[in-house]
Each structure stands twice: as C-alpha cells, then as structure tokens.
Amino acid sequence: MDFSLSRPKPHRLKPVLLASLLESDFMSAPTTTAATSATCANCSAPTGGAHFCPSCGKIQPLPRGTDFFSFFGLPQKLTVDLEQLEQRFHSLSWKLHPDHFARASDDERQLSLDRSSLLNDAYRTLRDPVARVEYLLGLAGMRKEGQKKQQAPPELLEEVFELNESLDELREARASGGTAAAMAGLRAKLEAAQHKFEASLAAVDQELARVSAEWDAALDSGADETASRKLMEKMNEVLNRRSYIRNLVNGVRQELAES
C-alpha cells in the first residue's frame, strides 16, 4: 500500500438559481427542480409531480429532472431532518411496494419496481451527511471519478512523509523477520499516525458541516449564482481533502491488520 506523495491513494430553493448553476459551463448536469406541469396519463388531471395522481390515484412516471431531494419532496439543502426523512421513506416504501400492483398494468408494475429501487438509493444517500454533499455536487458535475488527482493537504505533508518511512520500515522488518520488539515499536508508530489522521478526518468533517450550513443559509437568503458556485467549489475542495485523509486512515488500518 503506497501513500507516497507522487501517487496518493486515494424556506425554499430558488429554481432559477439552481437551474442557472446547473446549466452553466462548469456544471453540466440538467436542472434538478422537478417539473410541476405533468398531467396524469389516465385521467389527464394535473399531478404537480406527485408520485400518485391526486385525482384517480394512479402511480405516475417521475417528472423529468427529478433528483433524490425532490423525490422526497425536500429542497436541495444539506441539513435534513432524519426523522422526517425516515418517516417519508417508510410511507413511500409501503405505497410503492410491488405487491400493491399485482393486478395493475405492466406499465404500472414497472413504475412501482423502478420507483422502489430509486427510493432505496435516495434514502441511503440522503441519510448520510457526506454522501448528501457528494450527491449535490455530483448533480452539478463536480464529483466525476478520476477528474482530479488527489494531493496531500499541505498541513499534512510532514506527517505523510513520516508515514511513508514508517510503512517502509514495517515492510522491511516483516520481510526480513524482524524481532518482536522491533515490530512492536513500528506498530506503535503507525498507531500514533493513525490517531493523528483520524483526528484530521474528524476536523475535516466538522469543516464540511460548517460549509454545508453556509450553503443552506445562502439558499435561504437567495444568494446569487457566483456566491453559490463558490460554496460548491469550497465543498468540493473539502471533500477532496477528506477523501485523501480517509484513504490514509484506511490504509494504515489495513497495514496494521496485516502486521
């Protein structure tokens, strides 16, 4: 496992604002505000983007552009009432269950299956604060895998160099059959490094929570596109640092487990 610096391992939204952000050059995802002008194919009544027609009760196709937030009827904010989210999840799980569509048309049964699968994906994502931020930025095209090479955070450069040295020493000692005392000393150094990186990871999580709160406040205050873009870029940078440090923590744990 290589941690060298040369190869690091890895209240209400304003629809116009979000649409303009997502349609800008550096954010290529489509608008995520669900359409509200849909009509029911069965009775032609307006559905307002609901899961079921309010007139005849038939299950409806998802409006174009529906995302995980709008699936649950939530704004694209990063503070989520988890109790409310869970209640909506269980309610929709029951209403969308395929057993309720055993005698329905093929189209309705397929809609139920598709909607139930999306419900589970949406719930797993939105209940986790980090995954929630990842998803929001992913909608804006800012979290593409392999798009940017991770770099060690400047404040951790010295610690990363020390970690690489400790890892090399541990591998050499393991390969040459080092003494129990030597191995114990090297394990102690790695455990100390693990604790440092775990503390750094906790600090990054706190920073991500602060920026997430800034995002929510910006939406509440009707922030313009420039301000919202800067917040997204800031969240993206924090996530990049978090990913790098998380990989360090996981790597040290794995190395300790093998020694």
What is the correct CATH architecture of the largest domain? Orthogonal Bundle
Q: Which strand-content bin applies to the residues?
A: under 5%
The separation of the N and C termini measures 13 Å
> What order do the SSEs take from the amino end to the carboxyl end, as H and E?
HHHHHHHH
> What is the radius of gyration computed over CA atoms, rounded to a whole number of angstroms?
24 Å
Low-confidence stretches: 1-36
> Considering DSSP H and I runs of 4 or more, what fraction of the residues is helical?
55-70%
Q: What's the CATH class label of the largest domain?
A: Mainly Alpha
Mean pLDDT: 82
- What is the CATH topology classification name of the largest domain? Helix Hairpins
Number of helices: 8
